[in-house]
Amino acid sequence: MNGHLKQWRAARLILELFQQGISVEKIAGCLVLGLLLGIFPVLGSTTFLCALAGVLFRLNLPLIQLVNYLVYPLQLLLLLPFWGLGQRFFGGKALSLSMPQLIQMIRDDPWSSIARLWIITLEGIGAWGIVAIPLGLGFYASFVFLLRRLMKGKLKNA
Fold first, then answer.
1. How buried is residue 48: exposed, middle or buried, by Cβ count under 10 Å (0-12/13-18/19+)?
2. Contact 44, 32 (CB under 8 A)
3. Which of 75, 76, 118, 142 is 20 to 30 A off residue 156, Cα-Cα?
4. Per-residue pLDDT tens for 43-89?
């Protein structure tokens, strides 16, 4: 029930943005950047990145942060896969840790963990960049198409 309530609130927010005169393209930009920056493989960075993107591209900050917040579980799920993909792309040394082991390593010695994970994180960022560009273009085109259809339906029902 809680998940459906969040989805309803997000859909209602998007419809309210249309009523405020925000363009389909700007809303699609918020959705795409909130999604892609929300899965950026550096924990603790996404709120700042989304705020920066929102200001630079003059997007709706609450919407981009809402999307960022909603995809946070995806960031956690994709963190290790991005790191692994980065290691494959860039020939890095494999890290054979599960997420619980990684969390324990960080809890035990945060500074040593940062030093150990620095190169792996950079490789993960590179992998994210390679994946994010085509995904972003595809999502943007899809969101623009879907939002225009949503607007047509909304205008017909008004």
1. exposed
2. no
3. 142
4. 899 999 999 999 999 998 988 999 999 999 999 999 989 999 999 99
